[in-house]
Design brief:
alpha+beta, Aminopeptidase, 7-stranded mixed beta sheet, acyltransferase
Length: 188
């Protein structure tokens, strides 16, 4: 693989914005993300700057964003891991039963799919999650739309298994109706 997998730095907010906007233009976006391209495009630069600082794992934040950087400096993929402590309310409005990680914003550019970048990005996020001492994380989870069988298969190939939990996706203009299925991987 000719890509470098690394954490996003706070000063890379413009590139983080660009890859997020690209992900929201992907045909799978309505079953993969909880926001539309138009919603993201309306955000001011300060939003993207704060988001980059907040997702730089070197800054002891509650999230870490990792990217796959090609030799020419372009970003071919990204994943973000959110830290959920026991008792916290997650971004979906549910209370976390345990300290865990939550993978979100997973995207690999179409021309790079099937090259191993997804696995490398998820591995980087998991390595970071398992290295945390506070809070100690026993598992990492993610949600995948029932209408996205390719993503479900890819995550299962990486070791994620269904937890039996799901949530209905209703009333959001940015998400296709249906159910999100929860998958998780336990700490080795």
């Amino acid at each position: 693989m000719d890509h470098v997998i690394r954490a996003v730095q706070p000063d890379e907010w413009a590139k983080a914005k660009d890859i997020r906007l690209a992900s929201l233009q992907d045909p799978a976006a309505p079953v993969a993300f909880l926001e539309t391209y138009e919603e993201a495009l309306e955000q001011p630069d300060s939003f993207w700057q704060e988001r980059a600082v907040g997702s730089s794992p070197r800054h002891r934040t509650r999230s870490g964003q990792f990217i796959a950087e090609a030799p020419d400096g372009t970003w071919s993929g990204t994943v973000t891991l959110l830290i959920e402590e026991a008792g916290d309310m997650d971004f979906l409005g549910a209370t976390s039963e345990r300290a865990q990680g939550h993978l979100v914003g997973v995207f690999v550019r179409p021309e790079q799919r099937g090259t191993g970048l997804l696995g490398a990005l998820v591995d980087a996020a998991l390595d970071w999650a398992w290295s945390l001492e506070e809070p100690w994380l026993a598992r990492v989870r993610l949600h995948v739309h029932e209408g996205n069988p390719r993503a479900r298969a890819a995550y299962r190939k990486l070791g994620f298994v269904p937890t039996g939990k799901s949530l209905a996706l209703e009333g959001s203009p940015s998400v296709a109706p249906g159910r999100d299925l929860e998958l998780a991987i336990n700490r080795p």
